[in-house]
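Fig. S4 source data, part A: sequence.
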Amino acid sequence: MISWKKAVSGVAGLATLGAVLSGPAVAQSASDWTISYNFAVTSDYVFRGVSQSAENPTIQAGADIGYKIFYVGVWGSGVDFGKTATNKDIAWGEIDIYAGIKPVVGPVTFDFGVIYYTYPNNHSGPELNYVELKAGASGTIWRDGTLSGTIFWSPDYTGETGNVWTFEGTFAQALPKFRDITPTFSATLGYQLGDSNSYTSVIANGDDSYLYWNAGLTLGFHERFSVDFRYWDSNISDSGGFCTGKVLQCDERFVATAKVTY
């Protein structure tokens, strides 16, 4: 717990530093700059269909700075990957650093960026830190309905599991507002493909790929607050109890997340 408090303090510190450094530029051309912060509490941190917090609640925080089509940000979450043989936490937190551009061409917004996933002071054997490149596009397909697709590629995925491709498609539909509540339905389908024996054994339990998906309802309150209720699942085999063990569970689950954004 103490270590995670340090992680959140680090996220907040980076956000504050970014705001200070960008202060004069914001004053010169406020419309070109955007700065936002977010804080969330979730019942389970699920990433690509796999629990990162051993099905336990955790806290998350992030900060984003944008200038015209450019953006940079940092985001952190508590994680639980179990213990080492000497009873040390394999990892206590995840901190992601990312940057990219979002050019707009007609009705389509593109997103080209890089993400560095880090697990400070991790005590696992294989290296958990990894880099991904991403390319995505999104647009409105009808009133209040959006569709997006993103491709991620890592030359060496987490756990030194080699070259990995991830494909995601997301649909979101804003529903009629009820008093001060703005509901939005959204769903994501993802497909991941690896090409190494370590990926097959560590990530996909005997296969070289897997599917994951989620669907849920987000309730927005007064623009800053939201509560999300989401169902997650994957088709990773549970052979040998792979998906239902003490950590990195990948079976079906419901997740609730409360978030505030400034």
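Fig. S4 source data, part B ends here. The domain at 2-261 is CATH 2.40.160.40 (Porin).
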